[in-house]
Amino acid sequence: MFGRRKKQAAVPYDRGGKLPVIRSSICTGEQVAGFKDPVSGRFEELMLLRDDQDFREFLRRYQVEESEIKREW
Fold it and tell me: How many domains does the chain contain in total?
């Protein structure tokens, strides 16, 4: 019950059909990581990024390279 959480296994994503994106709010600075469908423009939110540790967890969990990520404002 109060034990350590298990680390979630890496979840592969469709590299051909979705792009990794970080959406940042201009007003509040809030950042959300997810994947965007380039055809429809639909954004799927996956994680709230509160600090660098959350960002590294997103990279590890979804096996994304930092150079692949696009930022949107």
Answer: 1
